[in-house]
Design brief:
This protein is mainly alpha-helical and 191 residues long. It contains six helices and four strands; from the N terminus they run αβααβααββα. The longest helix is centred in the N-terminal third of the chain and has 19 residues.
Length: 191
C-alpha cells in the first residue's frame, strides 16, 4: 500500500470514528446527560455518576471499545444511588480522632515488619502526608494513610476488618490493609 493510500485510509478511519463516536444521545431518552471531557472513560463517567460501568454502557448502547469524544453527551441516570458510600470531605462517616504524626508513625511501625517500616512510612508520607482522613479528591477512589482503592479490593479487605470505605479512615485498619496489600502485590500498588 502506498503512503498516499495509507494516508487516505487513516483519514477515512478517523472520519468514521468521529461519525460514530460523536453522536449525541436524544435529550428525551435520558434522565440526565453528562458532557464528556478530556481524559474521560466509560468507567470514570460511571464513577462520577455514582452508578456501575454496566449501567452506563447499557444506557448508551455502548461497549468498552466505543469511543468517547470530548463534548459528547453521555446518558447517565439522574437519581443513581452511589455504588460506594463516599463521605463528604468535611464530615467523614466515622468519628474523627485526631492523631499526631508521632502516633501515626508508631501505628505504621507497629504493624509493618521492621525491615519494611521505613519504606511504608515514606509511602504513607507521599500518599497522605500522614493524615488518616485523606481521600483522593479527583477520583474519590482512594482512602486514608496509604490511599487504598476500596472498590478494587472489596474481595479481601474484610479479612483485615474493612467492610466499608469509611473504615479506611481509621489509621490502624488502613495500615493493616496496606500491609496485607503489600503481601498480595508487593510495592506495585504504590509505584
Amino acid at each position: 500500500m502506498s503512503n498516499r493510500a495509507r494516508g487516505v485510509f487513516v483519514v477515512l478511519a478517523v472520519m468514521v470514528a468521529i461519525a460514530i463516536g460523536s453522536s449525541t444521545v436524544q435529550a428525551g431518552s435520558c434522565a440526565a446527560t453528562y458532557m464528556a471531557r478530556r481524559g474521560d472513560s466509560w468507567w470514570s463517567i460511571a464513577s462520577k455518576s455514582h452508578t456501575t460501568l454496566k449501567q452506563i454502557l447499557k444506557l448508551n448502547g455502548a461497549s468498552m471499545s466505543t469511543l468517547i469524544l470530548v463534548g459528547r453527551e453521555v446518558c447517565v441516570p439522574s437519581a443513581a444511588k452511589p455504588v460506594v458510600l463516599v463521605p463528604s470531605a468535611a464530615k467523614p462517616a466515622v468519628p474523627v480522632n485526631v492523631y499526631t504524626r508521632n502516633e501515626i508513625e508508631t501505628i505504621i511501625r507497629d504493624i509493618w515488619p521492621d525491615d519494611l517500616e521505613n519504606r511504608a512510612l515514606k509511602i504513607a508520607q507521599r500518599e497522605s502526608n500522614l493524615r488518616p482522613q485523606v481521600i483522593n479528591r479527583q477520583s474519590r477512589c482512594c482512602y486514608g494513610l496509604f490511599q487504598i482503592y476500596y472498590r478494587w479490593h472489596t474481595g479481601w479487605l474484610p479479612s483485615v476488618g474493612v467492610t466499608s470505605a469509611e473504615q479506611l479512615f481509621d489509621p490502624v485498619l488502613n495500615t493493616r490493609a496496606a500491609y496485607k496489600l503489600y503481601q498480595r502485590n508487593g510495592w506495585g500498588p504504590w509505584e
